[in-house]
Amino acid sequence: MASSSNIYRNNSNNHRNTMKIDRPLAPSSNLRASSSFKSKLTPSSSTSNVRRSSPAFLGRPDNSVSGRVRVAVRLRPRNAEELVADADFADCVELQPEVKRLKLRKNNWDSDTYEFDEVLTEFASQKRVYEVVAKPVVESVLEGYNGTVMAYGQTGTGKTFTLGRLGDEDTSARGIMVRAMEDILENISPETDSISVSYLQLYMESIHDLLNPVNDNITIVEDPKTGDVSLPGATLVEISGQQSFMELLRIGEAHRIAANTKLNTESSRSHAILMVHVKKSVSGKEADFSDNDNSSHFGSNFNPPMLRKGKLVVVDLAGSERIHKSGSEGHMLEEAKSINLSLSALGKCINALAENSAHVPVRDSKLTRLLRDSFGGTARTSLIVTIGPSPRHRAETSSTISFGQRAMKVENMLKIKEEFDYKSLSRRLEIQLDKLMADNERQQKAFDYEVDRIKLEAQDRISEVETNCAEALEREKRKCQMDYMESIKKLEEKWMSNHQKNGNNGFANGTTSREGQVGSDRSEITELKKLLQNESSMRKAAEEEVTNLKNQLYQFTKPEAGGTSCILELHKLLEEETRKNKRLEEENAVLRSQLSQQTLEAGQVTHSQLRDEYSGEGALMTNLPGQVGLQKILSLLESEDPNICMHAVKVVANLAAEEANQEKIVEAGGLTSLLMLLRNFDDETICRVAAGAIANLAMNEANQELIMAEGGISLLAMTAGDAEDPQTLRMVAGAIANLCGNDRLQMRLRSEGGIKALLGMVRCRHPDVLSQVARGIANFAKCESRASAQGSRRGRSLLIEDGALPWIVQNANNEASLIRRHIELALCHLAQHEVNAKDMISGGALWELVRISRDCSREDIRSLARCTLTSSPTFYAEMRRLRIEV
Ligand code: ADP
Ligand code: MG
User: Fold this and answer.
1) Which of 4, 129, 384, 728 could make an S-S bridge to 688, C-beta 3.0–4.6 Å?
2) Ligand 1 binding pocket includes 77 (Cβ within 6 Å)
3) pLDDT score of 245
4) CA distances to 95, 116, 150, 340, 375 from 74, in Å
């Protein structure tokens, strides 16, 4: 009879159709699609629902999920009485569970059809009833939602059977309460989660504690902010397992019976309410937080543990029948009204919610206050309406069905009850901290150990290297010692063999090779030459000294120059120097004869060997002019080939070193040629050798004038300015120094830049150069002082005029004794002439003179300085001023 098209027609208020379908608000397709009560909440929708401290169900916050109240109808089988009394009558209801419809017979030919979320026949097992009605709610509670399972129906239709059966004898008969607790216990972990239970009875608007009958008027407390309802006065028992819960239910049941006896009522008049509080901890990982606000508080990969607080409320309502019908003996009408107040208030609230009415009279009764979250609140709610089959109770059945149909229209907004589990967070953090600290300690230990190990290893390596090094040094030392011993031995052997050869009259016997002899002779020659050179230079120095002394003597012989004791002393010195000189000359002659003998023994000397020997300045080839011809050599000086010119100038220089050759060289025009070389050649070697030769020639007074006449000073000055090599400068300085000693050339020497050139050469700090410069200055000063003494010269010293004084003062105490000696003499000479005194004082020379007079190692110079200082009025006055005593 009923068809889907009928259903829809009826739904659009087509009254011609007899079928009456009271549809829930949700689209029918949703209902058809749902095979059970089970919530269709998707994971994402439940995720988006996660909010903390959100207000309760007041209003409709966006973060909640719609969840309509689900309603199932359960038909009780005929009981024994009905089987007899109604034997001739058909049941007033017909169920079509596969289409979830119920037909309520009006009469034999007409019936009303109703659609429910679930239709449970008289054959439906307790298990199935639990699964379709309560299980989805229990699951939600475990997820942190509030949940309600409520039975509504006429007394005797099976509300208590459905909800409260313990199933002691037959476990399959266990009701929803028992099964729900089984499910909850199975899904929590006793270490982190907890379950606590209250069990209450509401009768005549007063709440009794079924777990502790002393609490017989428990007040309801509402959180004004969240709207959450709590019963602080109710006993709350922690559940540890199914047994304890069963025990609790038994106690509760016992107390209920006792209370009803005391109140003179039946259980059907009271509402029984079981409240199960589930606190379930969710670890950070389990809680799927996509919300960035959360992660920002705890770091991107750290979610705090959450605590989900779900509350399951199971309500076994009082019988829905009208009081007069079930009999309210012993109660006054007002009392009777009060008995059913809560139930009728519930009906009104559901009506208001179903009709979306602006006012829902929640506050009208205790029951509606207690259940405010179950209807129109945030809980997931399942209602099971129980009916009996008897046509005699058709009116009650119809009213029950209507209640169920209206309840189906109630829309709840499900909200998770969740908060941070700070306790467990702090526990977790403590554990983590302990672990990190232990890790850190372990790492530190490992690190320290590693450092120690590296240190030890390094020390081992260092000592190994040290040992190796010491061993290597020791080996090297021993090797050197061995080598040394070996070479000593070889030298001894060589010396022995030479000695033997010399023992054979120095002539080579038939077996000795001539070449070997020449070799050893040659080394001897070199050695002799060296000795001879040393001797020559010593002789030269001695000669200079003699000249100096002579000069000094000359001065001191003058009546004004000093006392006779001084002269006598100088005489003595002079004699000694002359003796020394003579001895040196004798030694010189001996060495020379030895040299010529060795040369003879060495046999013929090749041209190339000669050339090598010219390169040493002062090399002696006294017999050369005879062999080659002086004219020829001098003509080679003019050769265009620098090589030939070089060899020639060396030969000439060697010749010029010999006083005996000097006159011949000059006569043959050698001086002119040498000066020409200075003028024309850039080659520094040629200039050096030429300057050396000129220096030697300049030792002769006649030659000095000739050099001057041929413009030699300016040429030497030019070379002095250009040259870099210290030896060249030494030669040039030597030549100028010689010229400085000529009394007649003083003015010209100075005017042609001789003194300036001399002073310019001190830029080269080579002691040989400085020594020649100092000698030149000393020579010049000596000549000047002589001229002044003779009266042929007046005015300041030209040396001072040309700015020589600073350098003189600076070098008066030079480390090199030769330089020091020259300068000391120069200072003494300058000081002789009063006109220089002022400049000398201002230039610091006085101090040097005082030092010389005290510290000079040479007695004669010391006394010369002393005489000079005391005889000069200017110096004397200055010394007195400065309180210097000489
Ligand atoms: P209520 O609580 O609604 O007043 P009860 O649960 O006390 O009703 O049930 C009344 C009687 O009916 C009980 O004896 C119970 O065993 C029986 N009964 C109820 N429902 C069923 C059922 N579905 N199958 C068998 N017996 C039932
Ligand atoms: Mg009951």
Assistant:
1) 728
2) yes
3) 97
4) 10, 10, 13, 23, 21
Q: Decide whether any atom of ligand 1 lies within 6 Å of the 155 Cβ.
A: yes
Q: Is 781 in contact with 797 (CB distance < 8 Å)?
A: yes
Place 64 in a pLDDT band, splitting at 50, 70 and 90: low
Q: How many CA atoms lie within 13 A of 533 on its CB side?
A: 14
Phi, psi (5° rounding) for residue 118?
A: -155, 140
Q: Which residues contact 318 (CB under 8 A, 6 or more apart)?
A: 268, 269, 270, 271, 339, 340, 342, 343
Q: Residue 315 has what DSSP assignment?
A: E
Q: Which two tokens stand for residue 58?
A: 């007041």
User: Is 232 exposed, middle or buried, given 0-12, 13-18 or 19+ CB atoms closer than 10 A?
Assistant: exposed
Pocket test for ligand 1, best of 129, 161, 390 (most atoms within 8 A of CB): 161
Torsions phi, psi of 236, nearest 5? -120, 115
Residue 59: per-residue pLDDT? 31
Say if ligand 1 is within 6 A of residue 159 CB. yes
From the list 348, 414, 339, the residue with the least C-alpha distance to 382 is 414
What three-state secondary structure class fits 209?
strand
- Atom of ligand 1 lying closest to residue 155 CA: 4
Cα 267 to middle of ligand 2, angstroms: 6
Q: Measuring from atom 10 of ligand 1, which residue has the nearest CA?
A: 156
Q: How far is the CA of 872 from the centre of ligand 2 (A)?
A: 153
Write a three-state SS string for 544-582. HHHHHHHHHHHHHHCCCCCCHHHHHHHHHHHHHHHHHHH
> Which of 74, 75, 76 is the pocket-test mutation for ligand 1 (most atoms within 8 Å of CB)?
76
For ligand 1, the distance from its centroid to the CA atom of residue 644, given in whole angstroms, is 150
Nearest atom in ligand 1 to the alpha carbon of residue 153 is: 3
| Any atom of ligand 1 within 6 Å of the Cβ of 268 | yes
Residues around the ion ligand 2 (C-beta < 5 A): 159-160
Distance between terminal CA atoms of the chain?
159
Distance 156 CA to ligand 2 centre (A): 7
427 Cα–ligand 2 center, Å? 46
- Using CA atoms, how far residue 337 sits from 324, 344, 360, 396, 687, in Å, is 11, 9, 20, 18, 149
Ligand 2: centre distance to CA 252 (Å): 14
For the chain, the C-alpha Rg in angstroms (whole number) is: 70
For the CA of 153, the nearest ligand: 1
Spatial separation of the C-alpha atoms in residues 629 and 610, rounded to whole Å: 15
- Written as one letter, the residue type at 448 is D
Which residues are 229's β-sheet partners?
222
Axis-axis angle for helices 701-709, 659-667 (nearest 10): 30
Q: Indicate the SS3 state at residue 208.
A: strand
Give residue 107 CA to ligand 1 midpoint distance, Å: 26
Q: Which atom of ligand 1 is nearest to the CA of 165?
A: 6
pTM metric for this prediction: 0.48
Assess whether the C-beta atom of 158 lies below 6 angstroms from ligand 1. Answer: yes
Asked if residue 359 has pLDDT above 60, the reply is: yes
- Residue 102 C-alpha to ligand 1 middle, in angstroms? 20
pLDDT tens figures, 648-686: 888 888 888 888 888 888 888 888 888 888 888 778 888
> Can you list the pairs that 535-542 forms with residues at least 24 positions away whose Cβ atoms lie under 8 Å?
535/584, 535/587, 535/588, 535/591, 536/588, 536/618, 538/584, 539/581, 539/584, 539/585, 539/588, 541/818, 542/577, 542/580, 542/581, 542/584
What pLDDT digit, counting tens, does each position of 418-442 carry?
888 777 778 878 888 999 999 999 9
* β partners of residue 272: 201, 316
Q: Is the CB of 76 under 6 A from ligand 1?
A: yes
A 10 A CB-CB count for 207 gives 23
Nearest by Cα to 766 from 741, 733, 792: 733
Cα angle for residues 258, 260, 264 (degrees, 5° grid): 120
